[in-house]
Design goal:
Chains A, B: It is an enzyme of class 1 (oxidoreductase). Chains A, B: InterPro entries: IsoCit/isopropylmalate_DH_CS, IsoPropMal-DH-like_dom, Isopropylmalate_DH. Chains A, B: It is found in: Cytoplasm. Chains A, B: One of its GO terms (biological process) is L-leucine biosynthetic process. The structure is a homodimer of 365-residue chains. The first copy, chain A, has 365 residues and is of the alpha/beta class. Chain A has a 10-stranded mixed beta sheet with strand order 2-1-3-12-11-4-5-10-8-9, sandwiched between helices. In chain A, strands 6-7 form a two-stranded antiparallel ribbon. The longest helix of chain A is centred in the first third of the chain and has 17 residues. In chain A, 40% of the residues lie in helices and 24% in strands. The relative contact order of chain A is 0.16. Strand 7 of chain A pairs antiparallel with strand 7 of chain B, so a sheet runs across the interface. The structure holds 3-isopropylmalic acid (2 copies). One 3-isopropylmalic acid sits at the interface of chains A and B.
């Protein structure tokens, strides 16, 4: 059995708690002889700042480079609101994405039937929702230069951020979306603001070309990101795969996640390019939810998004699709049994702590 | 009685139809001696392109500069998808905003009780919703330079857009938001992405300073634009005034509009700075909805957003608040009577065409 190297980066807030439940699962997989994971742990975000005055240490970056997959919790919190910009908690996550070239962020937005009523949307609008946002993750306004604040004198400052996209960056994220669509409902919706942004014009042009040249069998639609956002709120089930840039993807995937009523349940995968020689790809898996500092340390956090992110790692990094399916089924079974963490509690269900939820999923497995 | 100069720019798609109903209202106000409007009409967007191969002619720009207020319909449509970027329909609108320095875009998102069920959100989430998005309209990534597509050779192109904000731009839009909040529930929520964008850092810093210095009596909250978008979907009624930049404002105001179930009902105002001498400000009023080319020319369009935008003109440009109130009341009364255009039709209501709806509102007045 091959040994897989995992780097666990729990981060801040509820990160360590939900990571604990993934650790429990990994330990069991190892001891039951189902898989062989070697785990190491590092610091990222505020916890790295507290320890080393950086958002991630060079040592942990080196470990990240070596790992077969990174399992990431969450970063940030008001405690670090005043730290210098370069070492703010988010910088650690952004550096991991950039240095590991994790350009493809897959964010499924699935509405668990048992939770459809937790959505602010009407049941009929979200029941059965199953879409994936494919977000470009290493380009755009997140990383473009110049990115500066300049003092102009007279009490005036000027802030600049730069959105940059090259053809190849749009092509490769497009391919990820089209490949994914082929395994799903075969439809891709590309979103940009071509009526205002030159990057939107290029995005539209390149998506259209990749589609025509390599994926004519997939349906491709284009929508302006603002009306796309509207449509997501109005009738989300019309979509299958949505492909969009880093900033629009940030906004749209959060909104899609919120629609499902299952924010504490949604995983994500950030993937690099497949290496031609080793056939491996760098990858980081993290829940869509944040570090929720207000409920940290209280055993209230929902570990499902984190466990489900580990499930994505099994599927995308370790070719253990069958085991990943079992993890998904265990989650569904536990939900069906009526067990709920505080975020998804409703009448007639049984309250569970983070640990109780983790243990129940493990037992089901 | 003072004479007010209006420039009507119906634009494309359903623009001319809904503008027709405003024209009907203006004619009546004139003939009844309630007000004195002098109207002129111009071309913008695709219709300007078809006539002059530009998105707005210099002649119409000159009229716009002279007008006391511009009443704007909508622009764009698939017909002009292939026209050169510089003369695409939207360019006319963007030029009006920029050249007239209409930096403050006010977008109320109000849920009409009679229409609460038209929302994809649950009634309890949106009933009674009454928020305003104050969107910065002449800065940010819409207008920053460089804004280019460069051929890099080897089949590669590079697209660049630039987000730029200066202190004074953030200060003045902040003041508009704080002033507005004072007349409402006294709460402003500022949204940016300070964890990723330098313009977000400056935005946050300047809003905080303006608040502390000039509006300490107003409650100011800050939210990251992605989680702000989430909150807007989850529990929109927590907000009063949201102030944000041009691109986030584009996304967030469309989403807020869609929440209400009343997209065809929502007006907007785009305002310039008040001139110290004349005490006047340039202004453009337009519905939040687009040109809806699919239903154009069929008498299906809902004229309420357009009429309501004219109502905002009465209020903000002509100090006719009482008359504006009457327009709002007439709209509410007609809705209460059960009259509905196709977009808001539901069981037990009476179908109305664009014209019938406009006439009914006028009759009510
Ligand atoms: C934490 C932050 C930097 C990050 C982002 O903006 O990408 C987060 O919002 C996300 O979506 O993963
Ligand atoms: C038509 C387009 C240029 C415009 C914008 O992006 O600002 C529209 O979406 C709006 O919100 O008024």
């Amino acid at each position: 059995m091959a040994t897989h190297k995992l780097l666990l980066l729990p981060g801040d807030g509820i990160g360590p708690e939900v990571m604990g439940e993934v650790k429990r699962l990994i330990d069991w997989l190892n001891s039951a002889g189902i898989a062989k994971f070697e785990t190491d742990t590092g610091l990222v975000g505020g916890s790295a700042y507290d320890a080393h005055k950086v958002s991630i240490s060079e040592g942990d970056m080196a470990k990240a480079m070596e790992a077969d997959a990174i399992i990431f919790g969450a970063v940030g919190g008001p405690k670090w609101d005043a730290v210098p910009y370069e070492v703010r908690p988010e910088a650690g996550l952004l550096r991991l994405r950039k240095d590991l070239a994790l350009f493809a962020n897959l964010r499924p937005a699935v509405c668990y039937p048992a939770l459809a009523d937790a959505s602010s949307l009407k049941r009929e609008a979200v029941e059965g929702l199953d879409i994936v946002i494919v977000r470009e993750l290493t380009g755009g306004v997140y990383f473009g230069e110049p990115k500066t604040i300049t003092d102009l004198g007279n009490g005036q400052k000027r802030a600049i951020d730069t959105q940059v996209y090259d053809t190849y960056e749009i092509e490769r994220i497009g391919r990820v979306a089209f490949e994914l669509a082929r395994k799903r409902k075969n439809k891709v919706t590309s979103m940009e603001k071509r009526n205002v942004m030159k990057s939107g014009v290029l995005w539209n042009e390149v998506m259209t070309a990749v589609h025509k040249r390599e994926y004519p069998d997939v349906t491709l639609e284009h929508q302006l990101a603002d009306s796309g956002g509207m449509m997501l709120v109005k009738a989300p089930k019309q979509f299958d795969v949505i492909v969009t840039d880093n900033l629009f993807g940030d906004m749209l995937s959060d909104i899609a996640a919120m629609l499902t009523g299952s924010l504490g349940m949604l995983p994500s995968a950030s993937l690099g390019e497949v290496d031609v020689k080793s056939k491996k790809r760098k990858a980081l898996y993290e829940p869509v939810h944040g570090s929720a500092p207000d409920i940290a340390g209280k055993g209230l956090a929902n570990p499902i998004a984190m466990i489900s992110s580990f499930g994505m790692a099994l599927r995308y990094s370790f070719d253990m699709g069958a085991l990943a399916d079992k993890v998904d089924q265990a989650i569904a079974a536990v939900l069906a049994s009526g067990l709920r963490t505080a975020d998804i509690k409703s009448e007639g269900t049984t309250a569970a702590s983070t640990t109780q939820m983790g243990e129940a999923i493990l037992k089901e497995l």
